[in-house]
Amino acid sequence: MFVGFDSDSEQFSFVSDVDITSGTQLFFTDDEWGGTNFNDANEGTMSITLSATLTAGSVVIIDGPEDSVSGASGTLAHDDTSFNMSGSGDSIYAFSGSRATPVFLGFLTTNSDTAPDTGSSIDRSSFSGTDVFAYTGPTSGEASFSDYAALIQDVENWTAQGDGSGSQSANFAPPSDFTVVPEPSSTALLGLGGLALILRRRR
Ligand SMILES: [Ca+2]
Ligand SMILES: [Ca+2]
Ligand SMILES: [Ca+2]
Q1: pTM beyond cutoff 0.70
Q2: Ligand nearest 87 Cα, by number?
Q3: Cα(164) to centroid of ligand 3, in Å?
Q4: pLDDT tens per residue, range 64-97
């Protein structure tokens, strides 16, 4: 799920609700999906091959021009030099597999481009013309990482951090890592189980 977009300095941010295993190659493109293939030669693709497991809830920031990745271990590779996020309307598709046979994981658009059939799709068309924006809703308090999906979908939980004129890249502030709280019932059961164990030992 994408959680941040900064077209002033070509950065974006995402979080996964599941662990992604080391060795997985994650691709990102601002090309448009036509339903069966990517169809715009003017757009670009980059990828990161994970050198360690990306844990659920970790917020990753990728800065293409700086070749920097934070929140995940891996090296950024550029398939071409054409990745260029537009503040006036663009999309980012995240997928594994390959460009020819993508397995879609996430999608963020300010452009009403075609959403893939799988993965999370977030339409932030209302931020078109806004160069920098991010999810600023809750990152703690939910019982599972997938419970954040509805919060991330809600446009009310996003904030514009820069407009179309000049660079507001310094304002880009994607959320910190997401955390989950253990179910109260399982905590209580654990406590009772521990108590029972102590009582048995005393007999
Ligand atoms: Ca595009
Ligand atoms: Ca573009
Ligand atoms: Ca700007």
Answers
A1: yes
A2: 3
A3: 4
A4: 999 999 999 999 999 998 999 999 999 999 999 9
Q: What is the pLDDT of residues 145-163, one digit of tens each?
A: 999 999 999 999 999 999 8
Alpha helix (H) ranges present in the chain? 148-153, 184-202
Count of the separate structural domains present in the chain:
1
| 123 C-alpha to ligand 1 centroid (Å) | 14
For the chain, helix, strand, coil in percent to 5 are 20, 35, 50
Structural domain of 130:
2-202
Taken as a whole, the chain contains a residue count of 203
Q: Which two tokens stand for residue 70?
A: 């934070």
C-alpha distances in Å from residue 104, one per residue of 35, 159, 165, 170: 12, 26, 32, 30
Ligand 2 centroid to 84 CA: how many Å? 4
* Confidence (pLDDT) at 182: 83
